[in-house]
Amino acid sequence: MAEKSHKNNKVSLSQVANAAGVSKMTASRVLRGEGGYSEKTRDLVMHQVDRLGYLPNRLAAVFAGDKTSTFIGVSIPDLGNEVFAQVLEGIDHKLGSFGHQTVLGLTQHTEKEEEDWIHTVLSWQPAGLILTGRFHSTRATEMLRNSGLPIVEIWDLNSSPLDMSVGINHFDAGFDMGRFLVGCGYRNIGYVGTSHDTANAATTRLAGFVKAVTGGGGEVTKQLCLHDTAAYYPGYYGTEQLLTSTPTLDCVFYQNDAMAFGGMQYCAAKGLKVPGDIGIAGWGDLPIAAVLPRRLTSMHVPHLRLGQTAAEMMMSRLSGEPVQPVKDIGFQLIPGSTVKNVGLR
Amino acid sequence: MAEKSHKNNKVSLSQVANAAGVSKMTASRVLRGEGGYSEKTRDLVMHQVDRLGYLPNRLAAVFAGDKTSTFIGVSIPDLGNEVFAQVLEGIDHKLGSFGHQTVLGLTQHTEKEEEDWIHTVLSWQPAGLILTGRFHSTRATEMLRNSGLPIVEIWDLNSSPLDMSVGINHFDAGFDMGRFLVGCGYRNIGYVGTSHDTANAATTRLAGFVKAVTGGGGEVTKQLCLHDTAAYYPGYYGTEQLLTSTPTLDCVFYQNDAMAFGGMQYCAAKGLKVPGDIGIAGWGDLPIAAVLPRRLTSMHVPHLRLGQTAAEMMMSRLSGEPVQPVKDIGFQLIPGSTVKNVGLR
DNA sequence: TAGCGCAACGTTACGGGTAACTCAACGGAA
DNA sequence: TTCCGTTGAGTTACCCGTAACGTTGCGCTA
Question: How large a percentage of chain B has pLDDT more than 90?
Answer without folding.
Answer: 84
